[in-house]
Amino acid sequence: MSRFIQRNPVWSVIIAVAVAALVWLVVAPWPEGLEAAIGRKRIFLNALFNGITLGALYFLVASGFTLIFGLMKNVNLAHGSLYLLGGYIGYEFAEATGSWLGAFVVVFIIVALIGIVLQYVVFRRMEGEDLRQTLVTIGISIVLADLMLWRWGSHSYQILTPDFLSGPVTLPLITAIRGEGELVYLTFPAVRIAILVASIALGVLMWLALNRTRVGMLIRAGVDDREMLAASGVRIQYVFILVFAFGAGLAGIAGIVGGTFQSVSAGEDMRFLLASLVVVIVGGMGSIFGAALGAVLIGLAEQLGSVYAPTYSVVLTFLIMALVLAFRPQGLLGR
């Protein structure tokens, strides 16, 4: 972070001012009935937290994508299909067994195995051939989309929230002060808070694994100089298969998360593939914290835009990407 501040003082000031304004909007109590230019505080806070939790979902999808695309240089445009497949399988398992947590384990294993097959059959034979990888994975995504449409149709499926996470929780954030001095606090779905906390923990663990463990050292060394690492006796192909499996498994469990507080339906694969691409471009390829920052920015742009500028909400997402590409092409935290 200190290096980013030293290299980008202007961006650091802009981010600091934005964070300070955001903190003021969240903490400052607004009298009931006071209309501001951006709307009531309750609406703003709900849009803010919806954007952050949507960013947590985008991070779960994009973190696997940044491992596969940013670190391993494998162009996997079937990543969105893995997300949707994980959501469908999670729905079927949760409906059959009633176990929401168990669905995460089952889906991670199944989708990770599919990732191993993709790495061993497809990407191992096309190392360094970006165009072939792009075309082949587009074909795979079309086939998977048709198979899922044949099996589950065009209906939307909602994965039921477990009992211990159902209902709202009261957050220590004042949304208004009523005439008699009564404080009104914000309530928010407990499942979204749990998903946000889990996403933060996962991001920290992934960063530690890549930067503080021997396996992470091997992954980074294999990306920088695969031939030299292979010559030292390390079976780099096995390491990359492990990384690909983990990234695919993350996409699968993100499908369960998306199906829990939104829904899973045909067409969601392309939406989340596009979101992953935008997040990786904004945050920086190969950077876990960059993926987290990009995911939060895109999530906030979508949700705040849908509340305050619904006509231009989609434009805001691509405007952020265009500004990053114009002024910092490697991404906000990319190298």
Automatic annotation (TrEMBL):
CDD domains: TM_PBP1_LivH_like. Its main location: membrane. The keyword Transport applies. It comes from the Bacteria. GO terms for molecular function: transmembrane transporter activity. GO terms for cellular component: plasma membrane. The chain crosses the membrane at residues 12-31, 43-69, 100-123, 135-153, 189-210, 236-261, 273-301, 307-327. It is a multi-pass membrane protein. Keywords: Amino-acid transport, Cell membrane, Membrane, Transmembrane, Transmembrane helix, Transport. The keyword Oxidoreductase does not apply. It is found in: Cell membrane. Belongs to the binding-protein-dependent transport system permease family. LivHM subfamily. This is Branched-chain amino acid ABC transporter permease.
